[in-house]
Specification:
about 20% strand, 8 strands, alpha+beta, about 290 residues, three-stranded antiparallel sheet, 6 helices, single chain
């Protein structure tokens, strides 16, 4: 019985030793992680891909870091603008490890040390951006300027900055009113400029339309006069021909046209003698 227990203990011990040896020989890098392998303190592998890898037990050390995009908040940064106005700014920085080997050498792979360095650099970039520009320009251009400034400095720590965003700029009531008035003035000036340009364009279009209308009317008048002249000439020719062939009928037709014109208005009163040519073709009692 004692021999069997002893045998079981030996088997368990051997299995444990094998598991420890295997665990000491293999290591895993998960998705989203970056790893650096050192041998007796000297880097032998950097940028290890995710997966299962081997190492030399007791000689190699594996340093695994979070390689995903991370966010560092910056809250209540007191800044002084170019006009000596004090503002409080809230922002955040999006960053990640760019070079795991350099990251290990610069900050020892300590995330707390890395974020503290990043916080100092980002705060300094904010101070420079707001201190060298007016408040309006700093707010409008800060994100782009700060990303470039901060990213260039943290590269030495094996990190890279993807984005820097302002989330709040705290101003005093007087500064808010001054900013609002300035923006209102800019918008009013822009609106007046657009209105003036629109009125100028409208006047130009209206003048062109008037000139075109006048040209069309003049052309139509000339054509109408030509047509009227031709019609009058033809009518005169016809009248002359008709008079030459049938003078009595022509006189009768002309009298009818005169009656039509003179008696068109029912209130017209004509005082004529009995021998008037106008009454030649009208039957009058006693005549």
């Amino acid at each position: 019985m004692t021999g069997r227990v002893h045998h079981t203990v030996m088997v368990l011990a051997i299995v444990l030793v094998v598991l420890v040896a295997v665990n000491a020989t293999l290591y895993t890098v998960r998705e989203g992680q970056v790893a650096v392998v050192t041998r007796f303190g000297r880097v032998i592998r950097g940028g290890v891909n995710p997966g299962l890898h081997r190492k030399i037990p007791f000689a190699d050390s594996v340093h695994v870091f979070d390689g995903r995009l991370q966010t560092l908040p910056l809250t209540g940064e007191a800044l002084l603008t170019q006009g000596k106005r004090r503002v409080k700014v809230d922002a955040y920085v999006k960053w990640q490890i760019a070079d795991a080997r350099q990251y290990l050498a610069a900050v020892g792979g300590d995330r707390r040390v890395a974020t503290e360095r990043l916080r100092e650099i980002a705060a300094g970039a904010l101070r420079n951006a707001f201190g060298s520009e007016t408040l309006q320009t700093a707010v409008a251009d800060a994100d782009h300027q700060i990303v470039k400034a901060v990213d260039s400095e943290v590269r030495g720590y094996g990190m890279r900055v993807v984005d820097v965003r302002l989330t709040r700029v705290g101003l005093s009531a007087g500064m808010v009113n001054a900013l609002d008035k300035n923006m209102e003035g800019v918008q009013i000036a822009r609106a007046e400029k657009i209105t003036a340009q629109g009125m100028e364009a409208a006047e130009t279009i209206r003048a062109q339309a008037d000139r075109k209308r006048a040209a069309i009317l003049a052309d139509a008048y000339v054509k109408a006069e030509k047509i009227r002249g031709a019609a009058d000439a033809k009518a005169t020719t016809l009248y002359a021909a008709a008079y030459g062939r049938h003078p009595h009928f022509f006189l009768f037709y002309r009298s009818l046209r005169a009656y039509e014109k003179d008696f068109a208005n029912s209130h017209t009163v004509l005082v004529l003698g009995p021998d008037s040519d106008l009454l030649r073709y009208l039957p009058i009692a006693g005549r």
